[in-house]
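Reproducibility note. Readers wishing to regenerate the assembly model reported in the main text can use the exact inputs given here. Chain order matters: entities are listed in the order in which they were concatenated for prediction.
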Amino acid sequence: MSDGNVAWILASTALVMLMVPGVGFFYAGMVRRKNAVNMIALSFISLIITVLLWIFYGYSVSFGNDISGIIGGLNYALLSGVKGEDLLFMMYQMMFAAVTIAILTSAIAERAKVSSFILLSALWLTFVYAPFAHWLWGGGWLAKLGALDFAGGMVVHISSGFAALAVAMTIGKRAGFEEYSIEPHSIPLTLIGAALLWFGWFGFNGGSALAANDVAINAVVVTNTSAAVAGFVWMVIGWIKGKPGSLGIVSGAIAGLAAITPAAGFVDVKGAIVIGLVAGIVCYLAMDFRIKKKIDESLDAWAIHGIGGLWGSVAVGILANPEVNGYAGLLFGNPQLLVSQLIAVASTTAYAFLVTLILAKAVDAAVGLRVSSQEEYVGLDLSQHEEVAYT
Amino acid sequence: MRRLPTREVVEMKMVVAVIRPEKLECVKKALEERGFVGMTVTEVKGRGEQKGIRLQFRGREVEVDLLQKTKVEVVVSDDAVDEVVEAIVSSARTGKFGDGRIFVIPVEKSVKIRTGEEEV
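Running the prediction on these inputs yields the following structure tokens for the assembly.
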């Protein structure tokens, strides 16, 4: 790997790391002030737990010697034999895992015990994230099938989004969820989070080329395009319904970013416009559906990341342009890629939801996921951290 | 000396409600539906009769003393007080500790700043 490539992946690693607290800020603004510290803290806890587990065995079971296409071996446990460029790749991938767990905290907003979250996140990294990373990026069965996931539409977004739905269904609704409207306490904080996410996503998608090359350039351009298109769609929807709220605009942009993630190294700008446009619409409809069904997946990881990642992963099979990176989708004469993508999407969606449901129920039965009603009333900043966001 | 214009004498009361912050929208809606639009809303911290809430934090007992609340103040004529109180109680109640308190206070007079008009 050239010095330029190394420099770009080092920078991309830092960019993706910044997305972890970015998720924390994005979420913190959307909860009540008594839970703001907790939401940001959960993102840092996600990072800390991931760093430790990734070094001990997470990287190895994701990218180690293939075992039946399902999981990696323990040959890289404690990073034994991981040197140079592999060490850089390990660190870059570590940040992806951390972001994914941070996204999942949407499901437990304002009501989960920190200790239980730590246990759940450790189990989830082991039994959901690591297998997905192996299946698609570590030479596992979906990679062998020919499924493509450039930067994590399935590994990151489908996994966290559908897991969030399962966890939300297990932990139950926030107190008062159906009695009154639970309003965001700080839209500026959410906008800061969104800014960090959009910024970091250039490293998330651009860095996934694993080189400073034309594919990386394309990835950054289409990432920016899809975000803007989907953000514009939500702005228009806002205007149709009343006023274009900033919270909606940035949520739309995040939907566009999630959707372009699996496709960033395979589609051109025209494809990105289509992906962003459809993502804006389907993610909005998913959010609307969740609200109507009174599902308290509080901060819409399922609607934005889950559905966005699902659509983007399917879109790869339709819109992949061989001029970008050599892979052709349905519109470029290769229906087989769409078949592979559909199989991959169906299996990752089902696995993420069902396995997370089992893990969440197990943790709930063992130690309880939820704080007491009194602790929830006081707020998690005080009851979990003995801190307050604002004095 | 120039006297400010005055209106007829109307007995006025200030209804002060300290409620859960998340119940503010419900309370506003309930008051608006009954025709009471004007109000002053303040973010406050407070504690009630039970003083604080005792919780186990990190293996030791800690008292959470002051909790986040919202104060709603509405000035109405004397004959509307019961309706305002009923609207607030019905919309702010959850039935759990910490639902809040309502105080009714006499108001001597009110002056509209733009016109100098007095209500006594």
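We highlight two features of this model. The longest helix of chain A spans residues 335-366. Residues 259 and 308 of chain A are 4 Å apart (CA to CA).
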